[in-house]
Amino acid sequence: MVNKIIVAIDGYSSCGKSTIAKALAKYAGYTYVDTGAMYRAIGLYTLRQGLTNEADIIAALPHIQVGFILVDGAQHVTLNGEDVEAFIRTLEVGNCASRISQIKEVRAFLVAQQQAMGIAKGIVMDGRDIGTVVFPKAELKLFLTASPEVRAQRRFDELVNKGEKPNFDEVLADVNDRDYRDTHRAESPLRQAEDAIVVDNSNLTPDEQMEVIYGLFNSKL
Prior knowledge:
alpha/beta
């Protein structure tokens, strides 16, 4: 029986972390966990409830249940039993998730759930602090990066495909703002783990980057 490992994927926003993690999980027969979606679900809850005060957000945590379900073979996030996948991918929710992720109690609340998911290994998890905080002993740590302009173009195209009419300069500014928040927050800032392997996919096609990722995964087995 092949030993299963934990794969921790960190990196900047719009680097394709979720796409890569999903593909690797499918390739390996592992479970995929999108931690960013968990923060987005809490962000959506706070927006719906009109919670802006940190103390109120912390007080609400016991009333929030975040989970995952499979819908037509795709993983969807649930918030208190409701499938909220269609509501959590907006810029507004993403920015809210970035803000609330700076709250220590919110991070502790979700990190405990994430660590429980990895006890049996055989898991691919992506986020901002997976290799540094959630699974510091993960057997394979990847750190994804790409230039802000490339990431903004990807995000721009994604929004256009959803029928929205984004402004590229605003999307680029949003990417840079999120980078700053993610790397400068006091609680679990985004940083590359010392033993993480950096993958810059600015100039890689999807097939090329997955060839690199699969090779790195196989070398760890």
